Amino acid sequence: MLNTKFTPQTWPEHPEQATHEGKNKYVGIWIFICSDIVLFASLFATYISLRNKGPAGMQFTSQELFELPLAFVMTMFLLTSSLTSVYAMYHLKNYNFKGVQLWTGVTVLLGLGFLALEIYEFYHYVHIGFGYTQSAFSSAFFTLVGTHGLHVIIGLVWMICLIVRNASRGLNLYNAPKYFVASIYWHFIDVVWVFIFTVVYLMGVLG
Amino acid sequence: MSSVAVTKKKGVGAVIWDYLTTVDHKKLAVLYLFSGLLFFAIAGFEALLMRIQLMFPNSDFISAGTFNELLTMHGTTMLFLAATPLLFGFMNMVVPLQIGARDVAFPFLNSLGFWLFFLGATFLHLSFFMGGAPDAGWTSYASLSLYSPGHGIDFYVLGLQISGAGTLISGINFIVTIITMRAPGMTFMRMPLFTWTSLISSTLILFAFPPLTVGLFLMLVDRMFDANFFDHTMGGNTIIWEHLFWIFGHPEVYILVLPAFGLFSEIIPVFARKRLFGYSSMVFATILIGFLGFMVWAHHMFTTGLGATANAIFAVATMAIAVPTGMKVFNWILTIWGGSIKVTVPMIYALGFIPSFVAGGVTGVMQATAPLDYQLHDSYFIVAHFHYVIVGGIVTAIFASFHFYWPLFFNRAMSEKLGYWTFWIFFIGFHLTFFVQHFLGLMGMPRRVFTYMEGQGWDLFNFISSIGAIMMAIGVVLMVLNMLLSIKSEPLNCRDYWGDGRSLEWALKTPIPFYNFKQTPLVRGFDPYWIEKQEGNPEGMTYAEPLGDVHMPNNSILPLIMSIGLFVAAFGALYHPDGESWSVPVMVIGLGITVLAMIVRSVKDDLGYHLHAEEIIEIENELYGKGGNK
């Protein structure tokens, strides 16, 4: 399976599902995402019920705390990274390995940019006194957004491993599903962020 | 890998290594079965101690604190660490065979799921030796558990977190297996009912376990890292735990009972020697129960104060579940009706199951009536109800399936005679224990009390209940004895032990080779093996492919290493609130081991290996003599 060489003409239409293992992985990641949706749903519900709740005399509320420009820039980073991930999958279908590596690499860079901004944001909040243990609101905020951040870190490590590992071996039917599955996972993280942007930041500042 | 390795005698070390690294669904099934039995015995022993304490009023056999620990560990262990792995054992063994697959979709994850479960369960049980077990009930309501001193609750939270991750992984694996690994011709509406219920039950795991993961995580950070989710002085809300727990907790009941339904739906047609009545309505009822199972969690919280409207909605939804469950009961009865019934041990369990489970279901509908539930809440009536469902439904299914599937597991049969003794002692003991508890509850005896005063009219019923519990314990001991004796008996080396098997798992000769079917079978209709037998097919099945090379997965030690990493990290987290300086490094080391193992798994190619057609023939000749699996 590793050594079969393809040309763009012989490369299958759906390389991610051309082998049985690939098909299992493809179905498996969707099933996993179903359960991850429920995980985030539980965290969102907890956050919504604890938003702006804290001990008497709590100084921070979502209206004062969140800054939409920063959240907007983070959103742009992540949305663009989803687009570049689509480019990588486009090249995957066309058996263009250089394109796959390049655009997966750009995705990783954009993800790192997002992560850096998120770390800055958390550092800033803690610095001004909005720490994890400060109130129910702070605990819920850091847990929800932090869980998403953890997903981003996992996704980045995953994609970096793929790029490094496959750099010298090219595309085959063994690693094509791996790229594809990582890409689906990355899109999912992106969708979750859209909800975080809406529920935490937009509703936090405006609603 | 050479073929002779399969049958050659191996040293003890090699066998242990084989089981530590195995990815074979049949071996993992055996591991699930034995670890499930171990925890079943532990939790049963805890129940026995509690019943001895409650045998007489004002008893001081065990202290109130110990009683709290026992009742917590009994409930937690029975649901998470006994019933779940035992059913997973049967699912692992039977589902791939029933759909004509060589293994599950992700053999590696199958192994990871088991080791996470096992090490999480071990971690939870270490609490007994390390400063006290959890003592806030299996529901561990936050207002109680948040302030429980010592590390008991921490063990509960971390142990269940790890084992819950294992359960979720296994659930995902079963869903993908059933979707993608079915043999040609095995359409969804030809799948045996146990496969169907395993699919729906796994789907419930998929949606029910994440809320538990979140709830446990919130409890973890609240207790160990000073977060404020449940602490009302910091703006938290203790009811969040109740919701998250029951959004998981109610589907959990169906996660366990649906495979039990499936097992009986396999057993009854075999011994009624008749096709399962109303197959498509059974499938429909299973899906409906799974769907409604998520709409009813607040019926555990009627007295929390959600308001009359919420209570009414959840009451109606709860009663609605009785409809698909009733469909199932009628279908079983109509399968037996007019059949050529052969009474065996599995069948007698099935016959005992139907009335017992219906009794548990009826009291369930009573409790669904919210006003009445205000009276029944937290009384022994509740205890009686859920034990009728769990023991009458799930445990009888597990015991029946021990007998039913023992030949597939071990190529040996359990004794029928001893089986009947077990059944009658256990069954009578079960009804003695729990039937009178209905009345104790109606008389006002609250659940979870460690003793009671005499002269309230509770003495006799409590005494009867404890006698019943002792009988149940004797029954279980007899059953374990039966299992041990079966090892000494002659190997069966036969196909279709019960003579009337209907689905594909019976088409294989025991012992089943590690690759299952040498050629993928072709399924020509519902009850495929029955069809082939009716047509006089000497091979027992029609094949979809010629004999060729078989692709098999490699064994791996990585699942165990990943699980050990989390096990180590859990100790770090546990001692973090004590301010131990080593707690954070231990957490980092543990998680590092897990992450490193994951990266190794991701980066290293694992292509499996091919078993050649000649090797298969050689193995089959060695297992079954010349002629192979015919």
UniProtKB/TrEMBL annotation, chain A:
One of its GO terms (cellular component) is plasma membrane. One of its GO terms (biological process) is aerobic electron transport chain. It is a multi-pass membrane protein. Gene3D superfamilies: Cytochrome c oxidase, subunit III, four-helix bundle. GO terms for molecular function: cytochrome-c oxidase activity. It holds the Pfam family COX3. Keywords: Cell membrane, Membrane, Transmembrane, Transmembrane helix. It is found in: Cell membrane. The keyword Cell membrane applies. It comes from the Bacteria. InterPro entries: Cyt_c/ubiquinol_Oxase_su3, Cyt_c_oxidase-like_su3, Cyt_c_oxidase_su3-like_sf, Cyt_c_oxidase_su3_a-hlx, Ubiquinol_oxase_su3_dom. SUPFAM superfamilies: Cytochrome c oxidase subunit III-like. The chain crosses the membrane at residues 27-50, 70-90, 102-120, 140-164, 184-204. Residues 27-205 form the Heme-copper oxidase subunit III family profile domain. Its main location: membrane. PANTHER family: CYTOCHROME C OXIDASE SUBUNIT 3 (PTHR11403:SF9), CYTOCHROME C OXIDASE SUBUNIT III (PTHR11403). Belongs to the cytochrome c oxidase subunit 3 family. This is Cytochrome c oxidase subunit 3.
UniProtKB/TrEMBL annotation, chain B:
It is found in: Cell membrane. Residues 11-524 form the Cytochrome oxidase subunit I profile domain. Coiled coil: none annotated. One of its GO terms (cellular component) is plasma membrane. GO terms for molecular function: cytochrome-c oxidase activity; heme binding; metal ion binding. The keyword tRNA processing does not apply. It is an enzyme of class 7 (translocase). It catalyses: 4 Fe(II)-[cytochrome c] + O2 + 8 H(+)(in) = 4 Fe(III)-[cytochrome c] + 2 H2O + 4 H(+)(out). Its EC number is 7.1.1.9. Belongs to the heme-copper respiratory oxidase family. This is Cytochrome c oxidase subunit 1. It comes from Ureibacillus thermosphaericus.
